[in-house]
Specification:
By secondary structure, the chain is α+β, with helices and mostly antiparallel strands. The protein has one domain. It contains six helices and 14 strands. The strands form four sheets. It has a seven-stranded antiparallel sheet with strand order 1-13-10-9-8-14-7. Helix 1 packs across helix 4. The longest helix is centred in the middle third of the chain and has 14 residues. The radius of gyration is 19 Å and the shape is globular. 46% of the residues are buried.
């Protein structure tokens, strides 16, 4: 599956909405910036790092910045609005993480085991063990250092998941998935060819991520009205994870082609039963330039509501676990 890459975009509002969708406004803070890497602590009070923490290869013009914070920030729990996809095509992974946070947050909580603070290269880092496939053997260890732009308009900001209000779980899960793919624990694009690098998650299948998060098989359905009605009425409940994927073209210009969205809820009021989240998390609307026609479009940037007909007309696949 090809996926739309994301970059930083200007945000603005439209005068009208698609008649089949209702927007949910989002107020967004500024992205978090890393602590200066020169921060050091007394090694006599904080032990040296005993774990073989690895840093996957990242984009050019980057360095690993230290981001202090906690797993969940002020909320104390994972929220789907914590997900803000960065400059790589891993919407399939980010939408799956957002969906798990919304529909079964315990799935996210059970992935992480805190290991405490350690000194690594003279800097205090926090370590977590991250488990995939609901299998203790499929674990990797990650710290709170993430790829960061070195120069340019986004200098000193994260390249991949955009970290807000010191919430780290999404960036940690993304980094852990990259490492787990390099070890063969989870599936990723170009697996076995690109090694331990963020490029491994540049394009992929939501089913891979859903299975890694839940440890259960994921199913893919073609979206048409009867199929969607059948799936949503045949046992899917609040704990089931559902991700939607657009194809190469969409009927609505408010959606991004070749992109994945999290279905936060599919049991809402009959007029708009679906609550859907764009993992870009960029507020009400955002602009996107289609690489095929070079035109700029205004698309849903975060949460919106829609009905079954809108889903059937605009999304090619309905993936659930």
């Amino acid at each position: 599956m090809r996926v739309a890459r994301k970059s930083r975009r200007a945000r603005f509002e439209l005068e009208s909405l698609d008649s089949r969708c209702l927007l949910s406004p989002v107020v967004e803070p500024q992205p978090f910036q890393p602590t200066a890497i020169s921060l050091t602590l007394n090694a006599r009070t904080v032990p040296p790092d005993p774990y073989p923490v690895n840093h996957p290869q990242a984009a050019n013009n980057s360095y690993y910045g230290l981001y202090p914070g906690t797993l969940y920030g002020p909320s104390g729990k994972p929220l789907y609005t914590d997900v803000h996809q960065g400059a790589i095509g891993d919407c399939w992974l980010m939408a799956s993480l957002a969906d798990a946070a919304a529909r079964d947050p315990q799935l996210i909580a059970q992935m992480f085991t805190p290991l405490g603070a350690y000194i690594e290269g003279g800097v205090q880092v926090q370590l977590w063990r991250v488990e995939f496939n609901n299998n203790p053997r499929d674990t990797v260890i990650v710290d709170n250092e993430f790829p960061t732009y070195q120069t340019g308009p986004a200098a000193n900001h994260p390249i991949y998941d955009q970290i807000y209000v010191s919430v780290l779980w999404v960036a940690l899960a993304e980094k852990a998935y990259v490492e787990a793919a390099g070890m063969g624990y989870v599936q990723a694009n170009n697996q076995g060819l690109v090694g331990d690098t963020y490029s491994a998650v540049d394009g992929g299948q939501p089913a891979w991520a859903l299975e890694a998060i839940t440890g259960k098989h994921a199913y893919c359905y073609t979206t048409n009205t009867s199929a969607i009605t059948s799936v949503t009425s045949a046992g899917n409940n609040a704990a089931d994870l559902v991700v939607l994927a657009t194809g190469a073209k969409t009927t609505s210009t408010s959606l991004v082609p070749d992109h994945c969205y999290a279905v936060i809820n599919d049991t809402g009021p009959s007029q708009y039963p679906f609550t859907v989240y764009n993992p870009w998390g960029e507020g009400a609307y955002t602009t996107w330039t289609n690489p095929s026609d070079k035109r700029a479009y205004t698309v849903f940037g975060a949460t919106f509501y829609c009905n079954t007909a809108f889903v059937a007309q605009n999304f090619g696949w309905y993936i659930c676990s």
